[in-house]
Design goal:
By secondary structure, this protein is an alpha+beta fold. It has 2 domains: 101 residues, Rieske [2Fe-2S] iron-sulphur domain (Rieske Iron-sulfur Protein), CATH 2.102.10.10; 206 residues, Naphthalene 1,2-dioxygenase Alpha Subunit, Chain A, domain 1. Helix content is 19%, strand content 33%. The protein contains 5 helices and 19 strands. The strands form 4 sheets. It has an 8-stranded antiparallel beta sheet, with helices on one face. Strands 2-3-4-9 form a 4-stranded antiparallel beta sheet, with no helix packed on it. A hairpin with a 2-residue loop joins strand 13 and strand 14. 34% of the residues are buried. InterPro entries: Cholesterol_7-desaturase, Rieske_2Fe-2S, Rieske_2Fe-2S_sf, VanA_C_cat. Pfam families: Rieske, VanA_C. Keywords: 2Fe-2S, Dioxygenase, Iron, Iron-sulfur, Metal-binding, Oxidoreductase. This is Aromatic ring-hydroxylating dioxygenase subunit alpha.
């Protein structure tokens, strides 16, 4: 069931006159555009001699193999063999359903297309909001990425003084299971000095709502909303390349009115620096897991969304019963 979902292959702007290769669940796919601009996704292998079609060319909306020039249309049908006269044999390449939305090419690598449209990134293009995008390759699986993005305690160590300043103050989190995942809301969260807080957060006297949300199968969303109207939101969609690598597409949006473009000049490079800290930490973690031969985690209640993430992913992977919406519990931790 994990394969029968929408995943981002690449930003739409990257798919122009050349094919683009991407790996999902260990399978290489090739993406290209027809003459009308429609996006197509095929197996990245020519059935003749298994050369990668992504190394070929797009001509008249058709994809030509780099080895012998076999040409395929956007449905994967063989339409021409340059050195053979007459109608080509019935020899097609597997096609995958894909759509474009929010400036991304989405693909379903499974055999059953989901009824729902792909995830909508919040706040994109809304008045008063400023957004930017990032694409990051992690040497880690999807579960490790999701748990990292939605894990507050690690920020006081990995991102110390950049995103959080450790205070050891008690914080209460309430977790609620949803029909599409789970959400955690934090109460009485400390707002000590850090570079991110200084850019985006008003004074402590202004109320704040902070929620972390897991959206099945592979999306995290972090929202901060302040009583004076300021807000920022970080949404990351994870595309599994294989069991060891994940390509993450992140949209960061914040509401600062006319100051937004100015804040972005600092916030964008700062966000890249912070996410690279996570890249390095997850690479260290996964290298150690491979060295040990397996993951051997000690899960705590303070790993607030770890349990919902793993429950949902296990159910989807095994085709089991999905977690029931409505369950709630509270967790006390220090930040």
């Amino acid at each position: 069931m994990l394969k029968n979902c929408w995943y981002i292959a690449c930003p739409s702007r990257k798919l122009k006159n050349r094919p683009v290769a991407r790996t999902l669940f260990g399978r290489r796919l090739v993406f290209f555009r027809s003459e009308s601009g429609q996006v197509s996704a095929l197996d990245d292998s020519c059935p003749h001699r298994n050369a990668p079609l992504s190394a070929g060319e797009v001509a008249d909306g058709q994809l030509a193999c780099p080895y012998h020039g076999w040409r395929f249309d956007c449905q994967g049908r063989l339409v021409e063999i340059p050195y053979r006269a007459g109608t080509p044999p019935d020899c097609s390449v597997q096609q995958y359903d894909c759509v474009e939305q929010d400036g991304y090419v989405w693909v379903c690598p499974g055999d059953k297309v989901p009824e729902e449209a792909p995830l909508v990134f919040p706040h994109l293009g809304l008045p008063g909001w400023t957004s930017f995008r990032m694409e990051t390759l992690f040497a880690a699986n999807v579960e490790a990425c999701l748990e990292n993005f939605l894990d507050c305690p690690h920020a006081t160590h990995v991102h110390r003084y950049w995103f959080r300043t450790p205070t050891a103050k008690p914080v209460m989190a309430q977790v609620t299971m949803l029909e599409d995942g789970a959400v955690a809301e934090y109460f009485q969260e400390p707002r000590e000095k850090s570079l991110v807080w200084s850019l985006l957060s008003p004074g402590k006297a202004v109320g704040m709502k902070h929620t972390d949300r897991y959206i099945a199968p592979a999306t995290s969303r972090v929202d901060y909303e302040f009583d004076d109207g300021r807000a920022y939101s970080i949404t990351s969609s994870c595309t599994p390349q294989d069991e060891f690598q994940t390509r993450v597409f992140t949209v960061i949006s914040f509401r600062r009115g006319w100051l937004g473009p100015l804040v972005r000049l600092f916030f964008h490079p700062l966000s890249r620096l912070i996410i690279q800290q996570d890249v390095r930490m997850l690479a260290l973690q996964q290298e150690n897991i491979r060295h040990r031969g397996k993951a051997d985690f000690k899960a705590l209640d303070q790993d607030v969304l770890y349990r919902p993430i793993m429950a949902w992913r296990k159910a989807l992977r095994q085709g089991g019963t999905l977690p029931e919406a409505g369950d709630q519990w509270q967790v006390e931790l220090k930040l």
